[in-house]
Amino acid sequence: MNTIYFDSPVSDEVRRIRIYDGQLFVFSPRPSTLAFCAFARELIEASFPGLDPQTAQYHMPVEKYAAILGELKPAFIHHPQSKAFLRDILSDLGFDLEKTYFDVPRMRSSTSDDYLTSGIAYAWHPHRDTWYSAPACQVNWWMPVYDLESENTMAFHPRYWSQAVPNTSGDYNYAEWNRLFRPNAAQHIKEDPRPLPRATVPVELEPQIRPICPVGGVLMFSGAQMHSSVPNTSGRTRFSLDFRTVHLDDVVAGRGAPNVDSACTGTTMNDYLRGTDLSHIAPEIVALYEAGRPVSNAAAPHS
Ligand SMILES: [Fe+2]
Asked: How remote is the CA of residue 268 from the centroid of ligand 1, in Å?
C-alpha cells in the first residue's frame, strides 16, 4: 500500500480495485454520515445519564460499565434505524444498492488506561479481518463518533499488506466460533478466553498510519489490511462505528485482495444483506466460500 485517497471522486468499481490493492480511502463528513453519528451519540448518551460518555469510565466500577455496554451495543446493532442509516450512506458514496451487501453496523469502544480491554470492549491486537473468515472482497468502514486523537484511534500496519505473518487463523472457523463464544462477550471483563486468531510472532507495529478524521468522517479499507486498536492513553474513551460491505460481482467472480497468510475456514458471507431489500447472498454462492481459500504468493502490484 502506498496511497491515502481523500474525498476521491472515482467510481465504486475503481475504488474497489484500489482497496484490493491495499490503498486507503478517507472521506470527509457529509449529512448521511453525520446523521448516523448523531444517532449513535443519542443512544450512547442515554446509556450514561448525567455523564460525559468519553469520561464515564472514571465514575463507575468496571463491572457496571461492562453491563451498560452489554446493553448499548446490541441495541445499536439491531436497531431498525441503523440499517436505514447505512443505506443512506452507501447511496451517498456512490455504491450500487442492488449489488452492494452490508453487515449490521457495530459500535466499538476503546477505554483509556486499560480500564476495560476484553469482552464487550475488546482491544484489537494487530489482525486482518480475513483471519476471521472475511472474504477477500470485504471493504471495511470505520467512523469516529466523537473527536479522535492519535492516542485513542486505530492504526494500519502497511508493511504487512504483502508480507505474511505466521498466525493461528488455521484453527478458526467462523460458524464454530459463533456457536461457542459469541453470546458471552459481556461476561469477559478481566481477560478474554475466546481463541481469536492472532499472530504467533511479534508484529512490528512501526511503521504505522493513524488517519485522523473528524466526526462523521469515514475510513474505508480492505479486510485484508493489518490493523489494530491503538493502546488508549488519551484519558478519553473512544467510540466508533464500523461495518463491512461486499459487491456481488466481486463475490461471484472471486475478486479481492491477495491472501498472503489467512488459513481460516468458514465464511462471513451469509451475514451480508443486500442494500435494497436486505436479502442474503444466495446459499450456493456462500457455499463456495466455506472452505477458505489458498494462500497466494502474488503480492499486490503496487505495495
Ligand atoms: Fe478488524
From this structure: 13
Tell me whether the omega of the peptide bond preceding residue 207 falls within 30 degrees of 0, making it cis. Answer: yes
Torsional class of 80: left (φ above 0), alpha (ψ -120 to 50), beta (otherwise):
alpha
- Residue ranges near ligand 1 (ion) with Cβ within 5 Å: 129
The amino acid occupying position 284 is: E
- pTM of the model as a whole: 0.92
What are φ and ψ of residue 16, in 5° steps? -65, -40
Q: How far is the CA of 50 from the centre of ligand 1 (A)?
A: 32
pLDDT of 198 > 90? The answer is: yes
224 residue type, one letter: A
**129 Cα to the center of ligand 1, angstroms:** 5
Where residue 1 falls among pLDDT bands split at 50, 70, 90?
confident
- For the cut 70, the answer to whether the pLDDT of residue 147 exceeds it is yes
* 199 Cα: distance to centroid of ligand 1 (angstroms): 14
